[in-house]
Amino acid sequence: MFSKACEYGIRAVAYIALQSLDGRRVSVNEIAEEIDSPIAFTAKILQQLSRNKVIQSVKGPTGGFELDRTEMDTVKLSSIVHAIDGDGTYVGCGLGLKECNANQPCPLHDKFVDIRTDLKNMLENTSLYELAMGLEVGLTYLKR
Known about the structure:
About 55% of the residues lie in helices and about 5% in strands. It is mainly α. The chain has a domain at about 5-85 and about 125-135: Arc Repressor Mutant, subunit A (Orthogonal Bundle). The longest helix has 18 residues, at about 5-20. This is Transcriptional regulator, BadM/Rrf2 family.
């Protein structure tokens, strides 16, 4: 359902959130290594997330990426998805057909609408803090 960039973005933000809880900024190299992603690709994703104010980028010798603890409760996973994939996750045909809609549905249209609604609810109701806490207690892993 998500692009590879979005998957890496979610994993990167989860790692940044966890490190931010310990008061640490993290470099693009550290993030890329931790989430098993190419450095240049990770840098591009982090730039998109920073531009969309999902994460903060601090320049300079002590710079890196971080999240403000107070924002972790209010920023939701949907912000990451929107910053990287836009609204594509919530629209379009599950089979990739161009002309699928309520008037001309594909065989999976009605079932896929329900799945997308559930996915959207989950993304809009899961905070970055919850994601970080899942990592901290070992419920989530960043590498495949």
